[in-house]
Amino acid sequence: MLQKLSFKEIFLSKNIFLPLSVVLLFSLVVLSSISEDLFYRQALFIALGFVIVLTFRKFDFLPVLRHRWLITGIYAASIFFLVLVLLIGPDIRNVKSWLVLGPIGFQPSEIAKVALILVLSDYFSRRHLSVARWKIIFTSFLFFIVPAVLVAAQPALGSAAVLFVIWFGFLLSSGLPRNRILLFSAAFVVFGILLWNWGLKDYQKDRITHFFYPEKNVLGANYSVVQSKVAIGSAGLWGEGYRQGSQTQLGFLAEPTNDFILAALTEEWGLAGGLLTIGAFFMLMFGIMKTASAAVRNFDKFVCLGTVISLGTQFFLNSGSALGIVPVVGIQFPFLSYGGSSVLTNFFLIAIISSIGKK
Length: 359
What we know:
With about 350 residues, the protein is mainly alpha-helical. It contains 15 helices and two strands.
């Protein structure tokens, strides 16, 4: 069913699209300062993202998306791509996270986040009142563990951690009893010990151990974090100016378009620019939760919840890495960092939420 649209309704929503536009604007400004090529690519991804939103609202795809067969198909496709990337994906810096099909390259781990949100939203929307039953917990765990293991095998532990937080967040929000929470907490500690001894590679262990000793190995594992702190600490209130950030422009700041884009933004636009971006991001999260509170269907509420958990976890890990309060795990700042896979999959979630809000 076609829906009549207005420009104001789509792009000037104070709850979602206004704060989202602020974050996207800063993304383009920072990328234009670093790389003109990446600026044009990101602009194209953002334009395609808004096309996804417009298409969802114009043709009212939300009722179709609620069908279990489609959700199962999306989840199965995400598993297929995760297996495929391990088999034929190019090895880039000892990581197989990209699937290249001709001129198109994408990260299946980003699709897996969306697929997990959808399949858990469908599952818990019908069973959240009986979440204390071990059968319900175990089945939901299977939905999580399959893509998580495949993502961790790339290895991309940051994305695997996001998948875990999504799953556990669904359990907690469904009213998981306290004794189950304590039991899971103990299990996670045991799992962490096993992972440390037999699962992590040496460079991954270095990132964690050097996180607790930031003054050591400043030219090695801690180099990126040290330079990020220098960039943020030297910015002042208004920053060093457009294309004037020394750490960013001279190449001292590692991954200024992805992992440490918040540091690059703050260096050139100061504390004011950094806080404005973070504030806009939190307004976006608030807008999504406001949509969830007004939604009628449980599935819609859970999709909003899963989106907030996913975006919030990625924000915390990315900004925490830049500030040195969490180990560097290679996670993007949603809508701010460069990357077509991340931008388009997150826009897909925003399109769903926008359609829920319209209802």
